[in-house]
């Protein structure tokens, strides 16, 4: 479920980025920042594993 949700958010961000560029390029006026339209960039940041955690995973294998 988590991977599916991430995929859906990534696809949404891709579509918003495309729509933003299509609308913004021909204009010279003020336009909302793309970052305000994206949802995936805000909270999805993979956490680095410590070497101890990696060693524990390897030992469990």
Tell how many strands the DSSP assignment holds.
0
H/E element order? HHHH
Largest sheet: none
Low-confidence stretches: none
DSSP helical segment count: 4
Short descriptors:
61 residues, mainly alpha, 4 helices, 67% helix
Summarize the structure.
With 61 residues, this protein is an all-alpha fold. It is 67% helix and 0% strand.
What are the SSEs and their pairings?
Blueprint: H1 2-24, H2 34-37, H3 40-43, H4 51-60
Describe what this molecule looks like in 3D.
- The chain is mainly alpha-helical and 61 residues long.
- It has one domain (2-45).
- The protein is 67% helix and 0% strand.
- The protein has helices at residues 2-24, 34-37, 40-43, 51-60.
- The longest helix is centred in the N-terminal third of the chain and has 23 residues, at 2-24.
- It is elongated and about 60 Å long.
- The mean pLDDT is 80.
């Amino acid at each position: 479920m988590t991977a599916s949700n991430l995929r859906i958010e990534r696809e949404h961000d891709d579509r918003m980025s495309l729509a933003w560029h299509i609308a913004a390029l021909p204009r010279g006026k003020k336009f909302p920042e793309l970052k305000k339209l994206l949802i995936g960039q805000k909270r999805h940041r993979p956490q680095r594993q410590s070497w101890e955690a990696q060693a524990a995973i390897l030992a469990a294998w």
